[in-house]
Amino acid sequence: MADISQLGFSFVVEERKEVSGKDLGLLQEKLLQLNWGVQHPASGPMRLKVWIDGDEVVKIDPDIGYVFRLLEKLVEYRSWINAIVNVERICFMDDFGTMTGYSITAEKIAGIEIPKKANYIRTILCEGGRIVSHLLGLGSFVGIMGVNTPMQWALIAREKFLDSFEIYSGQRIATSSIVPGGVRYEPTKKFIDKMLEAINYLEKEFIPRYEEVFIDNPTLKMRSKGVGVIPKEKAIKIGLAGPALRASGIASDIRKDYPYAAYGELDFNVVTKKDGDSYARYCVLFEELKESVKIIRQAIDGLPEGEYKVRFPIKIPPGEAYVNVEWARGCFGFHLVSDGGTGPYRLKMRAPSFANLWAMPEMIKGVKLADVPVIFASLYMCHGDIDR
């Protein structure tokens, strides 16, 4: 077992059991509880309580709530439009997907149909957000094994997309640019040119270079193939979502299954893998970059003329609606209730990272301690949507 003092772990003795002298001379058997996080560089703002026997993981218990912000409750004190500020803060890595889901839900209750152009702009922004998020997911996965170069490459590509978001909205991350009724801003030629520049760089520079070095990489395969396997049947049973679910061979994607925005008019593939291990989940992220590029190109080519928003009323009729969207990390559900007032009466969100987190206790049994970070990173979770 690696020297845990060098890895930033603290530990306590959880259970001590005396054994007989016949067991190869061992005097004691110890079951240790390790605290992986809250300040571990790979855990993020959460703790995993890990029980080990030697270097074999016996049990794991996620301890969450360190970035709990009451986002769903705070929305009840906002207007229908202003609530978008809270909704986009679910996760900074892909806030376009959550803004789109909330906006579609509010529009369903209000009985409003938005212009076709708004749907195309939403699609371009959502796929831009998905690419940004996937880039960080790829860099983090390799980074957790101690290799920092992929994250630096990913950040260079990410900057180009953030540049386009800044041109569109004036902000690089928290853009508040998708609202009930459409989108906030008319897309300018400068924004479209910058978005094309970003996807050209991704397609011609980042993807081929990254694929050559960090996809068909023997060391990376050795560390991640066969690690944290979730068979198809178990993935369905435990409710996995998004790339983690598709890596187990389930072709589930809300963009295809229940199209929204402009997805129903565009051609793209749902990426799946059959192995269900950490390497498969990593490869799904990478190949989905290519599909997002295809979607953005088609949406830009087919961008209709006309209005980009309609007026959303201050008050909407009483009612409720539930909408799913395919966020970067998977199916994100919004249940929104109106009592006829100027803002949401109640919002409940079903977040994919929260669902995927609870797969860990099931898939971690019997793995080596060194595999915990690999499995954790491959599940591609965001602490913001776990805690909300």
TrEMBL record:
Its main location: membrane. It is found in: Cell membrane. Residues 145-310, 314-388 form the NADH-quinone oxidoreductase subunit D domain. Pfam families: Complex1_49kDa (PF00346). Keywords: Oxidoreductase. It is an enzyme of class 1 (oxidoreductase). It is a peripheral membrane protein. Its EC number is 1.6.99.5. GO terms for cellular component: plasma membrane. InterPro entries: NADH_Q_OxRdtase_suD, NDH1_su_D/H, NiFe-Hase_large. One of its GO terms (molecular function) is quinone binding. The keyword Hydrolase does not apply. This is NADH dehydrogenase (Quinone).
